[in-house]
Amino acid sequence: MQVQVINENGEKLGVKNIREAIELASQNDLDLVLVSPNSNPPVCKIMNYGKYKFEQQKKEKEARKNQKIFEIKEIRITPNIEDHDYGFKCKNARKFLEEGHKVKITARFRGRELNYLKGGENVLNKFIEDLADISTVEKKPVLEGKNMFIMLGKK
Prior knowledge:
By secondary structure, this protein is an alpha/beta fold. Helix content is 37%, strand content 34%. It contains four helices and eight strands, in the order E-E-H-E-E-H-E-H-E-H-E-E. The radius of gyration is 30 Å and the shape is rod-shaped. 17% of the residues are buried.
């Protein structure tokens, strides 16, 4: 079987028999790695595979380290929430948003409250208005079963 061989410096060595390519790699104490199996002829590279894998893992670890992880904080309310409770929940939502988290505010309807969905929607819209200076609405009020919720993200 014939393969296109590339050395560790990236220089093309030409098309060689696979046995010759393996011998070339072993002479330099390196590995023969199949880079492109679908091309004609297949392309192999002579390299230190252990070092290559280590570098890949290092890059992945660095990428994960620099990645910003968003946590979703949930605040549960009822549609007939009192003013003091509303203020407290609003303050917590503001704190979560300032920390960089996303906030999901859920209005839970129980029993006959399901007949008065407008009340829950009004409370959620009030949250949107009060937190408009620091947040953007990612999801408008949506009803799922007995819960209506909104998603807020930091501006």
